[in-house]
Here is the input.
Amino acid sequence: MRSTIAAFALLTIALTMPVAAVAESAANANQRTIQVAGDGEAQAAPDLAVLSLAIETHAATAADAAGRNGGLAQKVSEALRAKLGDKGKTWTGGYSLYPEYEDQSRPNAKPVITGYRAENTITVQTGALDLVGPLIDAAIAAGANRVNSLDFNLRDDTRARNEAITKAAKDAQAQAQALAAALGLKLGPIVSATT
Here is the structure.
């Protein structure tokens, strides 16, 4: 398993021109530059997992849907904390409660509420990647009924990002050299560079 960091570099490079062409192009400096874009990518082993789980409940009344959901969310949170110990953290968020309607196939039919759905999201963040499977199992056993997402990241992506930027800049420079050679010109100094 690897995390991939991508980078993009945009270089504007001055061109050196034959002496006869210098006076002619001096009036328009923009014609003496080329702009190229380069791509770079770096990979690193992830050291952080972020897991998002959902608890969804349905009931005839809003109070029942919310009450059931709150009880299950508490059980799921406790199960996750017990499994996680001091190897990460959990938090809740993304709570919603809304009515569910009868299928309205007739035009101009009046909406009829058939019940309510409550959803609660619990997020887990841990550096103990070997715990991800057991955390999902514990959450499902306690009442979670959906895994919204599982992302593997880097706590600090500085090294990988710098590597990707370096590769992107080298790619852009190689393209600029090829373009200048194809045009019979030589590269001058870099006028601007952005990532």
Q: What stands out?
A: The beta strands are 3-16, 33-44, 48-59, 88-101, 113-126, 146-153, 186-194. The helical segments are 19-25, 62-84, 132-142, 158-182. The CA atoms of residues 49 and 152 lie 5 Å apart.
